[in-house]
């Protein structure tokens, strides 16, 4: 869908107009409009249909607030609005439908923002201030459009395989060794360890974002994230365990969009259940790192997740990392594991309990506290490979399809003969 509203010069147009369906929302909007220096008469009664009729015979304002509440097909009706809007108009939609798919489709159509009713003065003030900033922001044309941003998700195939350890270590390496402004998003809302690994208090940033997704913008992200160093900021939570996670995932989408503007790298520590419940989290991810171990359960779940990624995130490049490898103490040998999933492991990280304890005692990430160890060296290799690629991916380690039938009986018969090699995968 090609909409004409792209940020442009203000020119001689009216700075603002709104078309709102209900009086309650108008009563909230008018004082904010006056505060912004606009005429309250520009807050009109009537929604999207009234906006299309009015703008078909009058010039479009610089900022247009339009109500979709009475629209039966918002995306189709937005096309009608696009036909009468002049280039350069910043459009903010409001509505009653709390649906992350609608939110993403509206943003893709060119809408600047989408606010949920009931409206609040703070919500409107933030959205309108951000819309105003579009016109004052420096314009760098093609160079800005080509700004590079890499995004990766780290997923453990089983609990305890070390996915969070790798996520925090890689985020730290991106921010220090490669001097990349990096965002770490820990989506284990109740039991996340990202902040703990960095010796930080998680704060309420992520919880506030989930509870109030309409307030997420650049300023919110700046205030909500906790700084670990000059280039690394984390957003995490320790939500009360008696409070279930109630969200449609729109907050996570908005956070990822905001990270694109503020950082060069995003690392998402993504629990398996979040992967299943919110598949749209991988829509803009370049790389998915699967962290596994040499067990039957991990072999099975590696196959299942690789299959899921192929269907639901075809644009994301999978990297397979075997963590905590202990020669002679594994259920399945490296060769049998790779045969069962019909692809090579990209990296193998040896087990080092002493190094893990050392990092915990120092309140540092594993990579920071253990640079001289073999596991630390592999982590640096992974970070270097991701940063050095064009899109955050790493060339596949081996051929073959992603899927295979997991012959559990065959693997079980070989459990007594572990044959693990620590050569590079």
Automatic annotation (TrEMBL):
Superkingdom of origin organism: Bacteria
PANTHER family per UniProt: SEPTUM SITE-DETERMINING PROTEIN MIND HOMOLOG, CHLOROPLASTIC, SEPTUM SITE-DETERMINING PROTEIN MIND HOMOLOG, CHLOROPLASTIC-RELATED
Protein name: Pilus assembly protein CpaE
SUPFAM superfamilies per the UniProt record, alphabetical: CheY-like (SSF52172), P-loop containing nucleoside triphosphate hydrolases (SSF52540)
Organism: Croceibacterium xixiisoli
Gene Ontology BP, a term: negative regulation of cell division
Regions that span the bilayer: none
Entry's Gene Ontology cellular component terms: cytoplasmic side of plasma membrane; cytosol
Keyword Nucleotide-binding among UniProt keywords: yes
Keywords: ATP-binding, Nucleotide-binding
Statement: the UniProt record of this protein carries the keyword Nucleotide-binding: yes
GO molecular function, one term: ATP hydrolysis activity
């Amino acid at each position: 869908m090609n909409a004409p509203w792209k940020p442009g010069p203000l020119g001689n147009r009216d700075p603002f107009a709104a078309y709102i369906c209900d009086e309650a929302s108008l009563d909230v909007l008018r004082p904010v409009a006056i505060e912004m220096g606009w005429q309250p008469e520009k807050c009109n009664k009537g929604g999207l249909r009234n906006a299309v009729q009015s703008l078909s015979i009058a010039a479009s304002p610089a900022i247009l607030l339009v109500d979709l509440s009475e629209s039966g097909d918002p995306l189709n009706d937005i096309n009608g609005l696009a036909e009468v809007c002049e280039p350069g108009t910043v459009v903010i939609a409001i509505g009653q439908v709390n649906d992350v798919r609608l939110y993403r489709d509206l943003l893709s159509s060119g809408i600047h923002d989408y606010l949920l009713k009931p409206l609040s003065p703070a919500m409107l003030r933030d959205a309108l201030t951000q819309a105003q900033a579009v016109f004052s922001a420096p314009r760098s044309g093609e160079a800005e459009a080509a700004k590079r941003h890499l995004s990766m998700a780290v997923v453990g195939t089983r609990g305890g395989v070390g996915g969070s350890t790798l996520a925090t270590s890689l985020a730290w390496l991106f921010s220090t060794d490669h001097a990349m402004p990096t965002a770490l998003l820990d989506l284990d809302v109740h039991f996340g360890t990202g902040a703990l690994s960095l010796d930080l208090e998680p704060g309420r940033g992520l919880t506030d974002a989930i509870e109030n997704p309409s307030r997420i913008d650049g300023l919110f992200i700046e205030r909500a994230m906790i700084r670990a160093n000059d280039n690394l900021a984390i957003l995490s939570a320790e939500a009360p365990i008696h409070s279930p996670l109630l969200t449609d995932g729109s907050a996570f989408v908005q956070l990822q969009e905001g990270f694109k503007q503020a950082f060069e790298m995003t690392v998402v520590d993504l629990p398996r259940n979040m992967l299943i419940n919110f598949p749209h989290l991988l829509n803009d991810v370049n790389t998915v790192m699967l962290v596994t171990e040499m067990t039957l359960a991990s072999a099975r779940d590696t196959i299942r997740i690789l299959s899921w990624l192929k269907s639901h995130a075809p644009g994301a490049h999978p990297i397979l990392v075997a963590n905590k490898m202990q020669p002679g103490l594994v259920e399945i040998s490296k060769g049998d594991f790779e045969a069962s999933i019909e692809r090579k492991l990209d990296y193998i990280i040896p087990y080092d309990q002493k190094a893990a304890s050392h990092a915990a005692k120092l309140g540092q990430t594993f990579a920071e506290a253990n640079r001289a160890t073999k596991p630390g060296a592999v982590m640096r290799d992974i970070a270097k490979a991701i940063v050095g690629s064009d899109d955050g991916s790493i060339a596949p380690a081996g051929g073959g399809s992603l899927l295979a039938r997991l012959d559990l009986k065959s693997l079980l018969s070989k459990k007594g003969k572990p044959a693990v090699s620590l050569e590079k995968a």
